[in-house]
Structures are given as structure tokens and as C-alpha cells.
Design goal:
Layout lengths: L3 H6 L11 H10 L7 E5 L5 H10 L2 E6 L2 H13 L6 E5 L12 E7 L8 H8 L3 E14 L18 H10 L4 E6 L2 H21 L6 H22 E9 L6
Parallel strand pairs: 1-2, 1-4, 2-3, 4-5
Antiparallel strand pairs: 5-7, 6-7
The structure holds S-adenosylmethionine.
The site of S-adenosylmethionine has 21 residues, from helix 3 and strand 2.
Length: about 250
């Protein structure tokens, strides 16, 4: 189960990552999605990316999401937008799922490589589910520059540089054929939507048993972002290609 902080903080996010609709549509074009495509979306959250891609490209998408609140929001949105025939959102711990071999044209894991332990584990877990010639797509943080300041509170996070991230991906056997990086605006949207959600929720629920924990996490994330995160932390969608052996 994920900490309740995330349920509260991301209740207004359609896309629960520092990226944008435009960049997700660019992703869809880069991996050549179309009405015949089948896509797996690991940790599909509130369904924003899957719904956007299904609507724009007519592809079919299977989402897997552990948080009941997020999965329910995704199902509700699919119905509201009339996309139930294209998307499904299953509530499950994705790390325990047996993925069908070579079933998908693309497997996505946007902002959730921790599900499998690491980026390398994620690429290794998802690659078998993709057909030769298909894509494994991972959204992942990276450090814009090193070394980190001594007072960076989240310095234990397991990220590396942009080049190091691509190397980890490619060591798993899939060349990175494209990347789509976040801008400062993408980060500000993602981070500050959390601020608004938390401040509103805390003001309205001061006696909730989780209020203290949510307040502590909210203040720490906000402080870390303002002190150093905005300058040092990058995020990108890395697109790996599973070679098809074609000449
Ligand atoms: C940063 S959010 C990204 C959501 C979505 N991919 C997006 O881009 O909008 C990470 C998601 O991973 C989900 N998650 C965490 N652990 C999971 C697991 N073991 N199995 C499935 N989903 C998980 C969280 O509930 C959350 O929705």
C-alpha cells in the first residue's frame, strides 16, 4: 500500500508525473501508436496517460494500479469519456503480476520503477511482455548535475545522471531510441498541484489521524523541491526499443 499522503497530494493530478499532455502525445507518435496497438501501463495511477493515449490514437491499453482510490478514479474517467471499450484498469500489485509474453506493442511504467526495485529490474520485467520491434517506456528521475549539495535531504534516492540512466537501460539489452525530458513548467505543475491539494485538505481535516504525517511529508517535499530539487532533479520518458532482427 502507498502512504496516504500520495492519495491526498495527487487527488487533482490527471498526470501524476512532471510531464504534459503534449509530451505524452509526442510519446505516442514516437512509438507509432495506432488503432491496432496494444499497450500495457504499469502503475497507471488515475489513468491520465492511458486515457489520453487511447483517445488520441485509438489504441487499447491495460492499466495495473495498486491504490484503490486511483484505480477507481481511472475507471470513472474511462466511463465519463466513453473509453471503456479501449482501456481497462485492474487493481493489483504489479510486481506480483505474471505478464503475458510478447503480448504488447508497448509496455509503459511512468514514474514507478520502484515497483520492480530499480530501473534495470523494470526493463527486465517488462521487455518479455513486448513483441520484437515494440517498445519499453520508463519515466524516471535523473540528476541534472553532480555532486549534490551536502544539505540535499533526499540525496539517498537511487538516481544517476542522464547518461548513466540511459546506460542502465541499455545494459538491459534495449537501445534507448528516444527520450522526452521534463521542463521546469512540467515540474512546477506536478509539484505545486500537490501543495494546493495538501494545504486545502489539511485546513479541512485538521483532526484526521493522518493529518500530522501528511503535513510533515508535504512540508519536507516542498522544502526539498524549493531548496534543490528544482535545480538538480530531472525527469524524462526513456523509450527503449526491442530489436526485431529486421535487416
Ligand atoms: C508517480 S505515480 C504515476 C501514475 C501514472 N503512471 C501517471 O503517470 O500518471 C506512481 C503510481 O504507482 C502506483 N503504484 C505504487 N506501487 C505499485 C504497485 N506495486 N503496483 C501497481 N501500482 C503501484 C501508485 O499508486 C501511483 O499511482
Amino acid at each position: 500500500m502507498i502512504p496516504r499522503y500520495f492519495i491526498v497530494a495527487e487527488r487533482d493530478h490527471e498526470i501524476q508525473n512532471p510531464t504534459s499532455e503534449e509530451k505524452l502525445l509526442l510519446l505516442g507518435r514516437r512509438i507509432r501508436l495506432g488503432p491496432d496497438s496494444r499497450v500495457l501501463d504499469i502503475a497507471s495511477g488515475r489513468g491520465g496517460p492511458a486515457l489520453l493515449l487511447a483517445q488520441a490514437f485509438g489504441c487499447r491499453i491495460d492499466g495495473v494500479e495498486i491504490a484503490p482510490e486511483f484505480q477507481a478514479a481511472a475507471v470513472e474517467q474511462a466511463e465519463a469519456r466513453g473509453l471503456e471499450h479501449l482501456v481497462s484498469f485492474r487493481r493489483a500489485d504489479a510486481s506480483l503480476e505474471e505478464l503475458e509474453r510478447e503480448e504488447y506493442d508497448a509496455a509503459l511504467c511512468l514514474g514507478a520503477s520502484f515497483v520492480y526495485g530499480s530501473l534495470a529490474d523494470t526493463v527486465e520485467a517488462l521487455a518479455p511482455s513486448v513483441r520484437p520491434g515494440g517498445h519499453v517506456v520508463v519515466g524516471e528521475p535523473f540528476w541534472r548535475h553532480l555532486p549534490l549539495p551536502d544539505d540535499y535531504e533526499d540525496r539517498a534516492d537511487p538516481w544517476t545522471t542522464l547518461e548513466g540512466t540511459v546506460t542502465i537501460f541499455e545494459t538491459s539489452g534495449l537501445p534507448v531510441v528516444s527520450l522526452i525530458a521534463s521542463s521546469e513548467d512540467d515540474w512546477d505543475r506536478y509539484e505545486t498541484l500537490r501543495w494546493r491539494a495538501c494545504d486545502e485538505w489539511l485546513a479541512r481535516n485538521p483532526d484526521d489521524p493522518d493529518a500530522r504525517d501528511i503535513e510533515v511529508r508535504h512540508k519536507r517535499f516542498k522544502r526539498t523541491y524549493l531548496q534543490h530539487g528544482r535545480e538538480y532533479l530531472g525527469w524524462a520518458i526513456f523509450i527503449g526499443w526491442k530489436p526485431d532482427g529486421a535487416p
